[in-house]
């Protein structure tokens, strides 16, 4: 236990160092022009010393998503559109735990969650436990724009999307052999009671792989979105933080936009994304400090994960208490970073 504690402290220190560098490197434009920016994540977890070919594959896909979302912003498009575009690309890639290649529940089935929020109006949309929607982030946008509701779940969400003209896909679209193998391994491990202090459903999960994006557009509007398959071997019907506005996703032009990844139960219990916004608003702390406060609280409760965010001045920050987090940002002042590990090397 002592060694684990020391290890976490060390990792946190490294994360802090790496984050502050990013935050200090970012600032609003000096010529008075609206700076725009996009930050994304591809999940937190045991991301360490990846084989070069795997690292390359992640780097290429993350760069593609980053550039596509950024192009929406540079063409004058909205933050919502940029977030949607970025997340669609990551959902279509089996590298991430979102859309195709998502993790599977205890029955071996995909159950996907996604949400989006715009900071100007506080309008939001989300879907939970859907299994036939190719791009759950598109469904979240549809709920935001075309329904009276914020969150639709399961068959009702799918029916709504179908009625609005969205094509549905079979469950098999999402299932890839790698995830079936991971599920079997995890279930076998749990049978043998090789558990740690974490609740069994989370034990042995090394990488969370959810995707998220936050953007600030040329009009100064912020949007945030998150999409996930949830946690591997989760109980059928379990819903995580990602589709919960205020937990996994939040955006308010007055403060910031946030997207989270990690063990969702802790992010729900701490209302993580909204807490960051509140800390900025009422304690007047900068984004990174607010993120740290919330992640430390999650850590105190035994949770793991991370978050990305940006504020209305295009200050970008991220923070996590895991070994790594796939993350990247690009800003209209030319700054760009793609990082995987806690150490500054990558
Ligand atoms: N936060 C997600 C959930 O608990 C999982 C993840 O971030 O990968 O559903």
Characterization of the model:
The protein is of the alpha+beta class and 346 residues long. It has one domain: 4-Layer Sandwich (Glutamine Phosphoribosylpyrophosphate, subunit 1, domain 1). It is built from nine helices and twelve strands. The chain has helices at residues 2-24, 52-74, 79-92, 136-146, 154-163, 177-191, 264-269, 272-283, 287-301; strands spanning 37-45, 112-118, 124-130, 151-153, 211-216, 222-228, 249-251, 256-262, 305-311, 316-320, 324-331, 336-341. The strands form two sheets. An eight-stranded mixed sheet has the order 4-3-2-6-5-1-11-12. The longest helix has 23 residues, at 2-24. The structure holds aspartic acid. Residues 43, 97, 208-210, 228, 230-231, 240-242, 248, 261-264 line the site of aspartic acid.
Notable traits:
single chain; alpha+beta; Glutamine Phosphoribosylpyrophosphate, subunit 1, domain 1; 9 helices; disordered N terminus; binds aspartic acid
Briefly say what this structure is:
With 346 residues, the protein is α+β, with helices and mostly antiparallel strands.
